[in-house]
From TrEMBL:
Keywords noted in UniProt: Signal
The keyword Signal is assigned to this record: yes
Protein name: Lipocalin-like domain-containing protein
Signal peptide range in chain numbering: 1-23
Amino acid sequence: MHHSIHTLATALLLSLAGLSACSKDTATPTTASTPEQLLVGQWQQTTSTNGMTGRTSPADPAQRLKLVFTAAGQLTMLLNGTVVNTTPYSLVKRQSMLTQQLETYLVTDPGNTQVLQTVRVDANTLVLAIDAYDGPSATYQRRILGSNSLYW
């Protein structure tokens, strides 16, 4: 029970702290070269890491979290196939409190600069992490389907 509450809380925190659209000029994961291009698509949560303990746990199969990023800058979060949040998003570069390096951040609420999520993304893996010493993180795998269905 504690594990599933932690996973859900982490997922909601990551989505609130901050429809895959197909078009001919949208880069595919294998040809994308920027974080903005790589982020576009459908992502299924696979693990979460507790920022306090450093313990990484598999995503709870009863709490299927999916993130859908569009090239038009929309983020949709689904929990067990039900849309729970849709919001505009952007990526910005800022100095990390943790690494003191320039990092890419996901911004879902431009007015909230207190809780920021770093973004590490490649063709198949997305990691969102709260930029804090005890911040949680979540790892997602890209899902490529034959249709644009949000509900898989």
